[in-house]
Amino acid sequence: MIVLIMGVEGAGKTVIGKLLARRLGWEFVDADDFHSQANKQKLRDGIPLTDADREPWLKAMHERMSGWVTQKRNVVLACSALKRKYRDMLSVGPEMRVVYLKGSYQLISERLEKRTGHFVSPSLLASQFEALEEPDDALTVDVSATPEEMVESIVSELELRKS
Q1: Domain contains 163
Q2: What is the tally of structural domains in the chain?
Q3: Position 15 pLDDT exceeds 70
Q4: 88-106: average pLDDT
Q5: What is the domain range of residue 139?
Q6: How many angstroms separate the CA atoms of 49 and 76, rounded?
Q7: What does the pLDDT look like over 32-57, one tens digit per residue?
Q8: CB-CB contact of 77 with 29 (8 Å)
């Protein structure tokens, strides 16, 4: 099973993903780790990625995810997956559940002002909200809740079990 945690930068994908994985005894993977150095540099420089920039990364992530399904690995994956077509490219069928971390621009912007040590420039937030196509087939979780409340909601709503 793969639980894909999606949302704009600063929504809490990594924090919630790690907490959820720890709670379930599952593996955690951050899709940002698999971007090319060129993509990472663009993001550091505050330059939004194009679909052409993302395509090889999305294809590689899909291959990796298909392998996890074949190996019957339980993985929590943090991945922005802002557009429907990105989520469609990543889809591995019923073995994947999507969780959308939803928050207001103001709340997430305030979080980003406090964040340090991430390679994505906070200046990209506006472009991410512009690109965001909210899913209608995902569990939507309000990011104004505490991380613990968010994880409890995900576990309960998706009826997830420990490995």
Answers
A1: no
A2: 1
A3: yes
A4: 96
A5: 2-158
A6: 24
A7: 898 989 998 888 788 888 999 999 99
A8: yes
